[in-house]
What we know:
This protein has helices at 2-19, 28-66, 74-77, 148-151, 164-170; strands at 105-106, 112-117, 130-139, 144-147, 155-158, 178-183, 199-208. With 214 residues, it is α+β, with helices and mostly antiparallel strands.
Amino acid sequence: MIRTVQHSLLLTAAAALMMGCPKAAETPASKAAPAAQPAKDQANAAKPAAKKLNRIAAAAAAAKASAGLKVNSPAAAAPAAAAPAAAGGPPAVPADVAAAPADAVKTASGLASKVLSAGTGKAHPTRASTVKVHYTGWTTDGKMFDSSVVRRRPATFPLSRVIKGWTEGVQLMVQGEKRRFWIPANLAYEGRSGPQGTLVFDVELLEIVNPQAQ
């Protein structure tokens, strides 16, 4: 009887212990697990925004490409090359200003010339002609002393009233032609007021004003 009572007491104590037993201890890993889920949710939420940014970048690159620019290229951001000098600026000094080159044509008087660009006309002016021209003149050391190009206004004059080198040289030209002349001093201003020595002129024959005088 005593043993039965003791056994019952033992069973009752064991049941009481089991009912009062605390839950399994929470590990650091089990505590961290709930926090991992929000972080994952945030990463998933960020994916659409990243995709949108990628689409915007791709659209910008396509726009640059269609405009003819190199994407992310330093050349694309480089300033444009400098524009040529405005019309009416001083013409460049000819490279052969110091002396007539070997391919220049010389006349019996010593006048040398070279065609820079061919004209479209057929007729030549005569000594009696009045002509309309653009011109620039230099001394052989490269100093410009006169230019209708700089003034932006062509010159018109009778060929009988200019220096001998002009009277002879312009008669070699046709309308629209550009020619360079090397005029020796005796055909220029020798012995009178004006630039001295051999003179170099670039002349463009714009028009023979009185073609009936030919």
